[in-house]
Amino acid sequence: MNASPIYFSHELRQLEQCARESGITDLMEKAGLAAAELARELMAGKASVLILAGPGNNGGDALVAARHLKAWWFKVTLVFTGDAAKLPPDATHALQVWREAGGALLDAIPPGGKWDMIIDGLFGIGLARNLEGRPLELVRQVNAMNLPVLALDVPSGLDADAGQTFRAAIRATHTLTFIALKPGLLTAYGPDYCGKIHVDTLGLDAPALLKPSGWLLEKDALAAALKPRPRNSHKGLLGSVGILGGAPSMCGAALLAGRAALKLGAGRVYVALLAGDAPAVDMAQPELMLCSPQRLFELDDLNCLVVGPGLGQSAQAVQLLKQALDTELPLVLDADALNLIATDGELQAQLKNRKGGTILTPHSAEAARLTGGSTHDIQQERVPSAVMLAKRFNSLVVLKGAGSVCALPDEKWFINPTGNPGLSSAGMGDVLSGMIAALVAQRLAPQQALLLAVYLHGAAADELVVEGIGPIGLTATEVTDRARSLLNDWIYSEKSS
After folding, report:
1. N or C: which end of the chain has fewer CB within 10 A?
2. pLDDT value at position 237?
3. Rg of the chain over CA atoms, in angstroms?
4. What CATH number does the domain containing 277 carry?
């Protein structure tokens, strides 16, 4: 898969070491110049910039950027928070050259100043403690100034690995990150603090120096494998999906999953509802074939089975889940299927030992139940948590949320950049499960189906918001319909042009 790599902080330090061993010693100069060039572009003719330089190499990058901007006749105000005697070697050199160029150092943001932009070079990927004292006050000052902010590498106060804040973080409008993407920019709170992300590799071919285990999901790479259907198609060629769920008062969840599977292209969709008073037909989508759970397991044409939407946690639900795990069908497990597995060692053993492919779709609370931890633990370590679940249960996993994390049993992982707060409403997970199953039924490999469906699900929500539909009040049905439209565009409109 040809996509942008993502590296943890310790891996980036390895990359920097590899670069030094290869004789590349000007990374700070390149980073500072790239920052100055982007700042000049973003200011678009404006001339006054406030630059914050911290006590480490991130501050050194800021000092280099300040030198270039000053040389280009920008009015530069530089606030330096470090100890000149304790700077790393490259940052010490950057400070010396700044002084030689006539640059001044301030120890606080001058009151009443007027600037067009702020460049944040306080802290980079090395920060590993909560902000306090003067740095905390600076972060709060910047956030209160309501000015465009360009953060260098990572917004100060944001954990580059986890996307959590160290008590507080600068809210940037743009983040210029160096060498490669970091997971904390893309998941948890990262998207709220980073603004638009720009990547400058500083001339390094990172994957050639250190093989990545994480990648960003990108449309072109995901959609490349999609092909138009042959004219001589029939519903048997397009696969059959089964949906198992819909306990009393929860039929809607299973129907939403079934409708999504149908609209994403499955040839046949069977929905088995547990509720005794379940309808015989879905009047909103009569193409769905409603049946009993027993009938579902008697079918010999299923290509994928979804278990969990509205399943409930009854004895019947447990027995049906065991029956599903015993099949060799590709399974998509969601909602109560995950909750049942979390409390039953026998089900866990069945899941781990399955021969058919399995996809788990937990949100953070469901993931916490599966790991025996807390939701807080999961959110603090989203990528490691998703990888752990994939390994533990020998399954593909999507840990849903801001920057959904998809993980494979071999420890590879992906972060999805699409989606918005409109997806935080009932039924969205059911729709995602149906979408995944539809793609599996149409002969996509489970991994490919998972990654494409996750990206497409978020992209559909994003398009709707651009058109003024949401995020408040966005519905799962609207996302289903837009996902169908996008999928057709990606296959037919773009490939015929």
Report:
1. C
2. 86
3. 26
4. 3.40.1190.20
Q: Look at residue 497 in the predicted model and tell me its pLDDT.
A: 55
Residue ranges of the chain whose pLDDT lies below 50 = none
Question: Strand locations in 258-412, DSSP E?
Answer: 268-273, 289-291, 304-307, 331-333, 358-360, 396-399, 405-407
Last residue of a domain, one of 162, 197, 215: 215
What is residue 165's DSSP assignment?
B
Q: Do 241 and 265 form a contact (C-beta atoms < 8 A)?
A: no
Dump pLDDT digits (tens) for 75-127: 999 999 999 999 999 999 999 999 999 999 999 999 999 999 999 999 999 99
Report the distance separating Cα 471 and Cα 468, nearest Å. Answer: 8
Looking at 178, 195, 215, which one is the last position of a domain?
Answer: 215
Reading the block at residue 186, the tokens are: 């893309």
DSSP 396-446: EEEE-STT-EEE-TTS-EEE-----GGG-STTHHHHHHHHHHHHHHTT--H
- Do 28 and 42 fall within a single domain? yes
How many domains does the chain divide into?
2
197 and 225 fall within a common domain: no
Q: Render pLDDT for 246-267 as a digit per residue (tens, 0 to 9).
A: 999 999 999 999 999 999 999 9
Q: Give the number of residues written for the chain.
A: 497
Residue 261: helix, strand or coil by DSSP? helix
Identify the H or E element spanning 118.
strand 117-121
What integer pLDDT is reported at residue 4 of this predicted model? 96
**Do 252 and 204 reside in the same domain of the chain?**
no
